[in-house]
Amino acid sequence: GRGIAVFTSGGDSQGMNAAVRAVVRFGIYLGAKVYFIKEGYQGMVDGGENIVEATWSSVSGNLHKGGTIIGSARCKDFRVREGRLKAARNLINRGITNLVVIGGDGSLTGANLFRHEWSSLVDELAEKGVVTAEAKSKYSNLYIVGMVGSIDNDFCGTDMTIGTDSALHRIIESIDAIAATAYSHQRTFIMEVMGRHCGFLALAASLASEADYVFIPEWLPEADWPSRMCKKLSSEREAGQRINIIIVSEGAVDRDGNTITSEMVKDVVVKNLHQDARITVLGHVQRGGGPSAFDRVLACRMGAEAVLALMEAEAETEPCVVSLDGNQVIRLPLMECVKRTQAVSKAMSEQNWDVAVQLRGRSFAR
Ligand code: ATP
């Protein structure tokens, strides 16, 4: 059968284990040999014990765990040709010509580059006598499928990335917990959530938690946001509400392009309203804990689709990324999605909101 390797790369997210499990189980079910590559690209470059054949039972009991059991890493070696040559050798030695990469846009970019360089890497290995003429013809193509693991939901072409829903659950749990203590003391809480170029977590959390105010990178608050915010907060208090919750996305900026920090928001509240205000930065808690039911199911569906895509791949098939369109799991051209994602980040950092929102639009998938 075909040799398929699966690995996780870049930042971790909940549901990655479920995705790996689905790839392993569905691959084996369809008669493929499936391998884990541990520690992302670093394991691919280093080879040895980092690349191991998976068995049906080797993925048992991990579905509910957060993070990624097979490890993830940032890898400098893979950014240079020499490192990728080593990686190619390690894959060919094990008969692997199919990769499932679970990561962010950087990891997918690396995979795409690897695929386009692949035949020249194989040629070089043949010249050096590392691979035989027979192996050379057998391993002339590398097939790539990507899945996006990210809590930020910041990838173009998919409605949800693996991990987003779990992170949202974690945020909501935290806000609920904080709201109880805030209620007791009539406090105002400023909750800072992740999302450098994407306010999805902050926005969805604010809808799900009755927050009074939210700052996200996609929305530039009016120049007089401090007084508007104070008016809103005090009107809630006057109406009998004992607490205020403000959610700040880490990527929120004002009209001058300056970051709106939790401290700034707190100072405004304390100075103008004399409320007892506290900041909670959720940080890596958002990435922790087990995956939600949604993420488990999403990862299972995406993992199975990734294997199918590899099974159906032909010589000229370009790398694809498995994504969610509405409730449908589909395949989209990997590099087009990556390029759009990077263009959105660029537009966001240049405060080109219209361009960013237009590029991110889900209509792209249709
Ligand atoms: P996150 O969204 O969590 O940052 P990511 O996949 O974007 O995830 P990166 O650190 O950008 O994370 O990339 C992970 C790894 O992918 C890098 O450490 C590197 O090994 C590889 N990689 C990224 N970009 C390239 C590239 N242009 N060429 C080769 N390899 C790359």
UniProtKB/TrEMBL annotation:
Family designation: Belongs to the phosphofructokinase type A (PFKA) family. ATP-dependent PFK group I subfamily. Eukaryotic two domain clade 'E' sub-subfamily. Belongs to the phosphofructokinase type A (PFKA) family. ATP-dependent PFK group I subfamily. Eukaryotic two domain clade "E" sub-subfamily.
Binding locations of ATP: G11, R74, C75, G104, D105, G106, S107
UniProt-annotated binding residues for Mg(2+): D105
Superkingdom of origin organism: Eukaryota
Sequence intervals crossing the membrane: none
Binding site for substrate: S150, I151, D152, R187, M194, G195, R196, E250, R278, H284, V285, Q286, R287
Section covered of the full-length record: 24 to 389 of 794
Subunit details: Homotetramer.
Lineage, broadest ranks: Eukaryota, Metazoa, Ecdysozoa, Arthropoda, Crustacea
Residues forming the catalytic site: D152
Organism: Artemia franciscana
Domain Phosphofructokinase residue range list: 4-309
Annotated stretches, region: N-terminal catalytic PFK domain 1: 1-366
Known role: Catalyzes the phosphorylation of D-fructose 6-phosphate to fructose 1,6-bisphosphate by ATP, the first committing step of glycolysis.
Descriptive protein name: ATP-dependent 6-phosphofructokinase
UniProt subcellular location: Cytoplasm
